Model the fold of this input.
Amino acid sequence: MQSISWVRRRLQRCAARFALDRRGLAAVEFAIILPFMLVMFFGTVEFSSGVAVDRKVTLMARTLSDLTSQSISVSDTDLTNFFNASTGIMTPYSTTPTKSTISMLYIDPSTLAARVQWSQGAAPRGVGTTVAIPSALQVGDTYLIFSEVSYKYVPTLGYVMAKTGINLSEVSYTRPRQAACVIYPTPPAGAVSNCPKL
Done:
């Protein structure tokens, strides 16, 4: 009997010492918290990159409409230069998933419908098609430069955000600055070209 009680007392003392022993506690807690800390860290990095890319997409759309609105007429070379200048904004992010389009809209005075007069870019709109614009811009017998940019942002680590990517898009409207409209293509020297009203 004495040997059994001795073993029992010995086990109780070992259990008490084990319960009071705090060595290795920090390592165990760190091992439990580490996955959550990594997810939060990489999630913050990816979210910040996504916000930065979204801001750059907005700047691209504004740059395209702004550069086009400063011209009286544009040629294919001018539009190519505008697209190249706008894609430079995306640095250091990839420009491959970028799709941008520039269109000129005429607002019909009787219906206030915005109709495409010309359109160039990755997904040009058909001439004469209508585009929905904000009511504040619906001023009859005026023109608007309309730019559209879309970008597919694919996170570096797909485990934190969408693996397939997030579609970002932005539009911008600008009134022509040098003339009533921006003519495309540039008319030959000496030729008179009126603003189209389709």
